[in-house]
Amino acid sequence: MSKIICSAAIRGAHKIVDMAEEGYERALKKYGPEHEVAFPNTAYFLPIIYSMLGAPVRQLGDMREIFQECRRLLPAPVRDNLWLPYLAPALDAGMATFFAEEMYEAIRYIEESNFYTKTEDPTEGGLWLGAADDVIFRKRGVEFVDGTAPGFAAILGTPSDPETASKIALELQEKNLYIFMHDQTEGLNMPEQLKKNVVQIGWGTRLVPFGPTYTSVVFAIGFACRVALAFGGIKPGDFKGNLVYNKDRTFAFVMAFGPVSDEWYANAAGAINWGFPTISDWDIPQVLPTGICTYEHVVSQVPHEEIVQKSIEVRGLKVTVSKIDIPVAYGPAFEGERVRKDDLYLECGGGRTLGVELLVSKAMEDVQDGLVTVEGPEMTDVEAGAKLPLAILAEVAGRQMQSDFEPILERQFHHLINYAQGIMHIGQRNIMWLRVGKAAIEKGFKFEHLGRILHGKLHQEFGAIVDKVQVKIFTQEDKVKEVLELAKQVYVGRDERLGSMTDDTEDVFYSCTLCQSFAPSHVCVITPERVGMCGAYNWLDGKASFEINPTGPNQPIVKGECIDPTLGQWAGVNAFVRQASRGKVEQVSAYSLMVDPMTACGCFECIATMLPMCNGIMLVNRDYMGMTPSGMKFTTLAGMVGGGAVTPGFLGVSKHYICSRKFMKAEGGLKRVVWMPKMLKDELRERLAVRAEEENLPGFLDLIADEEVGTTEDKVLAFLQEKGHPALTMEIAV
Ligand code: SF4
Hints:
alpha/beta
């Protein structure tokens, strides 16, 4: 801990204990040791002393022993020429400070009985409210436990203009925090600044003016101690339990404005005992290493416009969004709801227009929590039946966030958006498809609300890793294309992370049952060489998802004994799928289209099916809207394959899996492929060329037919014969 800060804190503590003790000796002479002493109407005595030492201070005489304890705690002032570890002595000095200040304030209640007003509302009495009595404490303290109020900001001093003071107060209120105000800066105090700006103060608005001197900080810390005693089951005297409870449960911090005196340093050191850091606008040394507090202990020179956000970040306060503020109903009941043609007002993506969704992580300072922007036409700007391009770019930041978690969070968009009544979301990545019903538009639903949903729900469901979320939505083609390009680079990076891992090197695979809301018996088995059929989850994503949420949809599967290496069947995988599909699926092959193929949900990037005349496999991607040689378009094929059914000869696959060495190994692999749309061939060209080289099939891509060759089996067969495609001489696939 900074020598400068510790020296000042220890100096300050000495001054405070001296001042309090002098006052005590005077009071003792005047009133005698049996004179009653207490904060008003409370059963918690002087709550910091009671919590830490288990000592109920009832009379002036009881304070003698506490002052002795203060003296025991007080370290010697720091000498200029001696370098020592200072953290522990500074924390002890901070604790002595609070004991002394509590006794100082209690004596003030004897000597100046009208110093603090006796109401909850400062407009009805004096400005300063003093210690909360038990009626107020019970009513307000429970909010610290039920989540209505995550904690408090203990403010020392004030910014110099009322506008800034009001803005900071409002920002803190918006985070549902209590604002406890103390002391003044150069003759100005925060409650007066707020009143000048016609801001209502008092317990009712959570803007609580505790006291005009720094000694009143004990009312804030004492409040936290009482919460631990009353609602946390912590016993008086269990100082460790009380400190840890508050560090973990009460998100509080000190916010200091203006020059920091020795006495303020002493109070800040005291607060660190509870894990409450100090954030200041002033030029003081910082204490950045973590230790007692969750993150940094003292952060300084923070501009006023950033001080709330910085405080939240430093304290590790998680933003709680209790309600998703959108004009339609929201919940899991609407997840499987469809928006059919007759109800359709607007659609985006799904091959009709460009559509892409992407989540990336950024540095803390690059994300403004809660920011939602829409560039391009809003839903309200277009006529019924409109089609718009759409890019949804969510940028998140968090102390615990890792880039490995990005795909997992991104894949949640599907169900999070689907929870909104009258909104249908299908697919993911750059094959997402959004449909908005007429009723939702009538209720006022807009693109902006997609951002609100993602902001709120990512906080709610991934609060442990996400601290900030901003969402940028684009509905102009050029901007959508920009996001699309970025997304493609990100997807390649994600897929490459698997590196040299193979199904043979790993003993554990991962399940994904995220799509069971649409297809109740569907289970994706994700292996290093077989990405989930939506293309959004690879093996590492499954692993990361399990780390984030051990009871979530991605569970480890110990593959167990290998039953058939060519089909890709393992005893452990079969047992898992049987249980996860509730007995609907007995066994699955990871590498076969014909024998026990996997179930398919509806999110697959591509469909693979047999062309019997050609003795080969055709592939079609979701974006391809034309006819295929199977006699069916993608949408018709999807209807046959999806819904969690096992359909030998038809299978949902990801683009990544098409380029895998294990792709349809049981049917002969890549050389069995006879047809795919040109756009898919072009997209996978480089990766397929590498695979063809590995298979000793030079120039193989030119042997694969596409829609320019034909969309009937006859035409495709004639092409294969002309080119001498190897599938024609392979064993017949059954
Ligand atoms: S398609 Fe498979 S991997 Fe993708 S989200 Fe659905 S269940 Fe998970």
